Amino acid sequence: MPQTPPLTGPNSSSYNNNNLYQTKDESYPGLYYHDNNLVSGSLEALIHHLVPTVDYYPDRTYIFTFLLSSRLFMHPYELMSKVCHLCMEQQRLGDPQADKKRVRKLTPKILQLLTEWTETFPYDFRDERMMRSLKELTHRLACGEEVYRKAVGQMSQGLIRRLTVQSQYEEALVKINATAAERLAAVKAKPQASIQRDMLSICSDPFTVAQQLTHIELERISYIGPEEFVQAFVQKDPLDNDKSCFSDRKKASNLEAYVEWFNRLSYLVATEICMPVKKKHRARVIEFFIDVARECFNIGNFNSLMAIISGMNMSPVSRLKKTWSKVKTAKFDILEHQMDPSSNFYNYRTALRGATQRSVTANSSREKIVIPFFSLLIKDIYFLNEGCASRLPNGHINFEKFWELAKQVSEFMTWKKVECPFEKDRKILQYLLTAPAFTEDALYLASYESEGPENHMEKDRWKSLRSTLLKRQGLRLHSETRTNPKSGLRQL
Q1: How far is CA 319 from the centre of its chain?
Q2: Contact 398, 41 (CB under 8 A)
Q3: Is the Cβ–Cβ distance between 269 and 307 less than 8 Å?
Q4: What is residue 29's predicted lDDT score, i.e. its pLDDT?
Q5: How far is it, in rounded angstroms, from Cα 110 to Cα 107?
Q6: Which residues lie within the region annotated Disordered (predicted)?
Q7: Which of 222, 273, 237, 232 is nearest to 253 (CA)?
Q8: Strand order in the sheet with 20-22
């Protein structure tokens, strides 16, 4: 991925500084630089700056940054239409008398720009309007020499392959989610007939479970497009006369699916802890997940680590004081310290920098793994977007802001390219992805069944939950706890 230039920050330079000057290139009036870094410009000038000429090709860093941030101001298909128009103007593709030498110089550059766009932002081309513009321009380019036709063919095949893989992934997610929903419904509908297995019966090795969690994490992040970080926060550009709110641009399905995975893992951990009837078994499950979390930390899988900690810190779990009294919590305390939210997650950010440095100098795939605490990454990008104006008072685009945005996103793009070096265990993966994870109410009910309510508020809630959940299942209320004699797990 392109690396953005080092910047001192969006608010560090004055736009009235004497070092600030307008580019002297007459082709791009309206671009402003500070210490040789592009800091602002009109939208039209920035679009022109993206398009190659006979003597110019945009820096890859600029291409990535502008393609990423431009969707805050216009639809990708609108940008593609403008780019195609400018490319045809530059190459005079409609003029049969156009200088062939000029065409030979420009065509490879235009194809390179389109290739970078289709490789880095392939999901843009799920829009038929994007594909229409792309096909129109590439058809004109391919009318020349055989080498151009071959390049266009390779680019098109690569794009189709990426979009096909994305569609297959989405279909797989639908099936996984449907299976998980069916299994949860089965447990609710026939609790006495179902034998609920737990994680320890599937695998009792924390390192192996941490490896399989890393498989899931790396697969999920590999499908997140860089544009999703921006599209998740898209709002109407105040200078746009179109009154629509660009709702069709708010597409961040892979990002949302990844956040849902974090939530699922947290609830699954809490479910695994609350399900056992015996206190000794619950304590063992807690210690097991503490060890899994520690292995995740060692691997560099901070997202699973935080999901596990979140699950163990849920109120239905944290209130199990008798259970926790049987747990050796020293390792858990260390992990909580590492993920302590105080000082803006200072300890975690320090650990993340260490993992990133290790990744840069890594000799093996395992050492390259960096899976950030994703919710915090989203929060950082959100506040960067909200904390700095996208437009300056003169109406120009605040490009200094977008250098920093691209820097954060491109770092994630590097992390997501790492292939998981661990061997897959289908049985463990299937369990992690589809095992029933209880709702918060069901967790509270299981928690109260394990260790009774301690005050009037908890007693009232317990009675209400039992009444609501058990009536919903069409079961009679019993004063005694129902257990499955084969598994020793609570049935709700």
Answers
A1: 32
A2: no
A3: yes
A4: 78
A5: 5
A6: 1-20
A7: 232
A8: 20-22, 31-34, 37-41, 397-398
Rounded distance, CA 372 to CA 362, Å? 17
pLDDT below 50 — which residues of the chain?
1-26, 193-195, 236, 238, 241, 243-250, 475-486
Q: Please name the residue that has the structure tokens 């393609």.
A: 67
Q: Which two tokens mark 187?
A: 């447990």
Domains of the chain: 41-159 (1.20.870.10), 199-234+251-438 (1.10.840.10)
d(CA 465, CA 27): 69
Report whether 339 contacts 348 (CB < 8 A).
Answer: yes
pLDDT at position 268: 97
pLDDT tens-place string over residues 39-91: 999 999 999 999 998 889 999 999 999 999 999 999 999 999 999 999 888 77
Residue type, 243: K
CA distance 273 to 278: 11
Distance of CA 430 to the CA centre of its chain: 21
Q: Is 7 exposed, middle or buried (0-12, 13-18, 19+ CB in 10 A)?
A: middle
pLDDT digits (tens, 9 = 90+) for 233-284: 765 454 554 544 444 444 668 999 999 999 999 999 999 999 999 999 999 9
As to burial, measured by CB atoms within 10 angstroms (0-12 exposed, 13-18 middle, 19+ buried), residue 356 is: middle
Q: 446-469 burial, b for 16+ CB within 10 Å, e for fewer?
A: bbbbbbebeeeeeeebbeebbeeb
Residue linked to tokens 């920093």? 404
Residue 333: partners with Cβ closer than 8 Å, 6 or more residues away: none
Residues 123-138 as b/e (b if ≥16 CB within 10 A, e otherwise) read bbbebeebbebbeebb
- Residue indicated by tokens 């970080």: 229
